[in-house]
Structures are given as C-alpha cells and as structure tokens.
Design brief:
alpha+beta; 41% helix; disordered N terminus
C-alpha cells in the first residue's frame, strides 16, 4: 500500500512527510511527535495552552515548561529560580515580622551601601530570566499548533501579553525604587546643615553676628555643676558618639544631688520652624530625650524655646564676658547663631548644633550624645506619607487666626477625644499657642511624637520608603551616622511609654521664674529635677517632681 503523502489522511491523522518514520501518539485533540523526555505530552494528551504556560513561568520560571510538557527543562529552571528567590522571600518575611530581623538582613548594606547597586543589577537579570522563561514556555506550548488563530484569540493573546508585561515590570520597579532609596539614605551626609532644610526670609539683622573671634566649636573645658553642698565635674561628649556612656561619681554624704546609676543615651530632638515672615532656623521645639540602655526607662525634657540668658560654657563664641550667657536673643536663636557665624566653629560639620548643644548640656546638667533637627514642614509631609495619625486629644484646642507654615491663616478647632489628623492638622495641633500655654504646647508636641512612633510599622515604612527618604534628605540634619540608626530603633523598641517621665520646664514650674513670653530659668533646680527623673525609681521620681508618665500626659 502506498504511503500517505502530505495533505492525505492516514488512520484519521494528518502526517507530515518528514515525520513518517517517527512513532506518534494520537490524543484527543492532536498528536505529539517528539520522543524526548523533556518534550513529553501532558497527561491525557491535551495540548497545552500557550498563554497559561507563559503566565505560569512568569510567576515561577519553569512551571510553564512543566505544564507544556518539557518537564526536565522546567525542573532545572524552577530549581535555579527557587535558589535565586530565597533571599527575596526571606526579606519579605522579615519586613512583616521583627524590625530586628530586617536590620540583620540589611546589615551588609550598612557596611557596603554600593551593594544596593549590585542588587538592582541582579534584579534586572532576574527580570530578564522571567521574561525569557515566559517566552520559552509560550513557544514550547505553541510548537505543534498550525495555522493562524481566530481574531478573538489574537485579541486575548495581545491582552495577556500586556498584562504579563505589567506583572513583570510593576513588582521589579517597586523593589528597585526601594533599593535605590536605601542606597541614597545610606550614602547621604545628614550631618551638614543645608540651606534647603529650612526656608524663611533669610537671617535677621546683625543681632546674631558675633563680636568675638573665639573659634572653639565645642568647648573642651569641663563643665562644672555647683549646688549648695557638692560639685560635680564632667566633660560633654562630642556629637555622633552613640556608644558614649555617662557614669557620674558617687557624691559624699553631704550631697543633695543623687548619683546616676545605669547607662543613658541622650539625644536632643529639635523642630525647626520656618515659613513666610520667619527668619532663618528657629528651634521652636526642643525636647531632650534620655534612654536607659538596659531597660525600657526613659525621660523627656521639654526646654523652653524662649529661655533668656541661656548659660554658655567658657570660650563659647556667643558667651558674654560678664555672665557667660546668651544675652542678645532667646534660646531658639542660638542654633541660628552658629549658622550665621560658621567661621567661629571651623571644626563642626554643623555649626548650628555646635552652638546650641553646649547650652542645653549646661541647662540640664547632663551630656548630650547627639541631636536630630527636622524642619516642621518636613515632619508634616512625613505624617501624610505614613497615612496620618490617630491621636487622643485630652484638652480641646482653639487657635483663632492660626498661621500655618505655608502662610495660610485659619481658625483652628480641635475637640477633645480621639482624632484622625493629617500632617497639616497634627503640626497645627503641636504648634498652636494662642489661648493656651507653653506648658500644654510642650505636652502636645510630645504626644504627637508618641502617636507617630506608636503607629509606625515595618510594612508601612518599606512601602513609603522612596517618599520618606526624599523628605529626610530635604528636612533632616543629624550627627547620628545612618549605620547607627538601626541600633537606635532597637533601643526605642525597648521603651515602655508607661515608664517615661515627661517634664516640661515652664514658668508654672518652680524651676523657672519670669514674666511674659521671655524668662530666665533656675538652672540649679532644673539640673536637680533632671537628676531626679533619671536616677530615682520611677514612682519616686514622678511623685518628687510632681509629673506624669508620657502615657498619662497623652490620655
């Protein structure tokens, strides 16, 4: 019998002349002519759908090849993909889990930030592997099909290709943006005050210009704290030393100031006010936070922005020869003094901080390890990026004609109870001072910080990372090296807000005397109050000072 030629039917099956000598398997919808193991037909003999094969390999390279019948090929591709994807899965689990685990995973980037660039390059290679695997699976599933598909099939295929491209590009772009944001964060120099950090209308008249040529940025002369019965001497540490510890000597039995016990880390948190009609950088929010590094104990000290005649150590460029105090302006202008006179602080990365921190150390009687200053408009933007905050308002706030940082003027009414606040409203709540006192204003500032800290979570931070990094590079100045930020986050995790002593030094407190908006504080009583807050047991400190914990203040 003659052999069937092309176009003829043989046993109900159309045969290709080149494959006459190969065995064939008749299925429900067609035949498979390959005898190779990695091209075996799927079970049941059904033809694989190319679109399904491509989507499977896009999600997990190798899965589409297995589905299309190339099982051996699919296994090897899937094994390679699993090995490559394991670190990504581990990072994803860490992001949803403990921040400490996430810190350990990004630890190599802290030591070598340029690894982030290599990760982006590796990610591009992975994206290429996905694209190749998807197209390869498509071709394998398509190889035995004949003729052009119908129009509706072609439209489905086109739509599927577009969707697959989106599925491939979107996640890789999301990861690449955050990886590059981490690189920018780790390589940015936050220690230098930049003119873009705070706006305003320039610097004020020559009241801030120094009349001395002294050029010591941070006075090395030991500070001396004198009370009626004891003298305690210590040298303030340089900013940027997060591992600095403070151990005060045990005084004699005649001392009225108790000794320090434990190891404390202290940082000055500064909020810089800016906007139309305002000059330079005014540190209108000054909160000094001390954390005991071995427990959840902490204390927050709010220092008045309008402290007059703030003490300065010997040799400070702004010190008056008669009283060694800042007599020309109030405390919130001392940071700007350093910025206006950088030549007087030649060794300081940030002359503003070099000018202000020695005065805060003398006021409180403790060394300040470091500082962080943020433009309050940047703080507003950060709250918006994080989705706003929920905060309990213990006392209603009304501020007619409240002036916002951008110059807008509007009446502010915030009622008692739980409130959801945008960044604009939260900042207004923290800054309002009409029809209220500086005492309540300081409390509100601490409570806003507490609300932000309470509602931060790793997933939100990672998702908002590019925007947050842009805000930080625009608005933040700090002497704390970026590679030490994870250690600080770990310490903050230990803090129990129910064990945080919150102290505001205001005219209503015995530590301060004076009238009106400008006053001079009793430095000795301030220092003794600080020592009581840091040294005494929590309950004793609260009762002695007559204050509440941070939880109590904000509820």
């Amino acid at each position: 019998m003659p052999v069937a030629t092309s176009g003829k039917r043989f046993g109900g099956v159309r045969r290709d002349p080149q494959n006459l000598r190969q065995p064939y398997t008749q299925g429900m919808r067609g035949v498979t002519t390959s005898t190779e193991d990695d091209a075996a037909a799927p079970r049941g003999g059904r033809r694989p759908i190319p679109v399904v094969a491509a989507v499977l390999s896009l999600a997990a390279p190798g899965a589409g090849q297995w589905y299309a019948g190339a099982r051996r090929r699919g296994i090897w591709i899937l094994i390679g993909w699993t090995v490559a994807a394991a670190p990504v899965v581990a990072v994803g689990i860490a992001v949803g889990g403990s921040p400490g685990v996430l810190r350990d995973l990004v630890g190599p980037l802290l030591d070598s930030p340029d690894l982030a660039i290599l990760l982006v390059a590796a990610q591009a290679a992975v994206a290429g592997l996905q694209a190749w695997a998807a197209s390869d699976a498509w071709l394998i599933a398509r190889r035995d099909r004949r003729g052009d598909p119908a129009l509706w099939r072609r439209l489905i295929v086109a739509g599927t290709v577009v969707a697959m491209a989106a599925l491939l590009v979107v996640p890789h772009r999301w990861v690449a943006e955050r990886t590059l944001a981490v690189h920018e964060l780790l390589t940015f120099d936050f220690s230098v005050h930049r003119s873009a950090v705070v706006g305003g209308d320039g610097i004020p008249p020559t009241s801030l210009e120094a009349t001395t040529t002294t050029s010591e940025p941070r006075v090395e002369v030991p500070m001396t704290t004198t009370s009626s019965s004891s003298t305690t001497t210590f040298a303030p540490p340089e900013p940027g030393s997060i591992t600095t510890t403070t151990t005060m000597p045990i005084p004699s039995t005649t001392s009225t100031i108790p000794p320090f016990v434990g190891v404390w880390y202290t940082v000055a948190l500064l909020g810089a006010d800016s906007g139309p009609g305002r000059w330079g950088v005014r540190t209108d929010s000054i909160i000094v936070a001390s954390f005991e590094q071995t427990s959840g104990r902490a204390a927050l000290f709010s220092v008045p922005r309008n402290w007059q005649r703030a003490p300065l150590p010997e040799g400070h460029p702004a010190a008056d020869s008669e009283c060694n105090c800042y007599r020309r302006d109030i405390l919130n202008a001392l940071y700007q003094f350093g910025l206006v006179n950088p030549d007087l602080f030649p060794d300081a990365a940030n002359p503003g901080a070099a000018s202000l921190l020695p005065s805060l150390e003398l006021i409180l009687g403790i060394p300040i390890d470091d500082y962080a200053l943020i433009d309050l408009q940047g703080f507003e933007r950060a709250i918006d990026v994080l989705g706003g905050i929920e905060i309990y308002v213990p006392v209603s706030v009304h501020d007619d004609g409240h002036v916002y940082p951008n110059g807008d003027v509007d009446d502010l009414d915030i009622w008692r109870g739980w409130q959801w606040m945008s960044g604009r409203r939260a900042l207004a709540y923290a800054r309002a001072r009409h029809e209220t006192s500086d005492y309540h204003r300081m409390d509100r500032q601490r409570c806003v910080l507490k609300a932000v800290a309470d509602q931060l979570d790793p997933i939100t931070v990672v998702n908002s990372l590019p925007d947050l990094v842009n805000i930080l590079t625009d608005s933040l100045v700090t002497g704390i090296p970026v590679d030490e930020w994870p250690d600080i986050i770990d310490r903050l995790d230990l803090v129990d807000t129910g064990a945080v002593v919150a102290v505001s030094f205001t005219p209503s407190a015995p530590e301060l005397t004076g009238t009106g908006e400008t006053y001079t504080g009793n430095v000795e009583l301030v220092r003794e109050t600080v020592r009581t807050a840091l040294e005494r047991p929590l309950d004793e400190a609260l009762s002695t000072i007559g204050v509440e914990t941070l939880d109590g203040v904000c509820s």
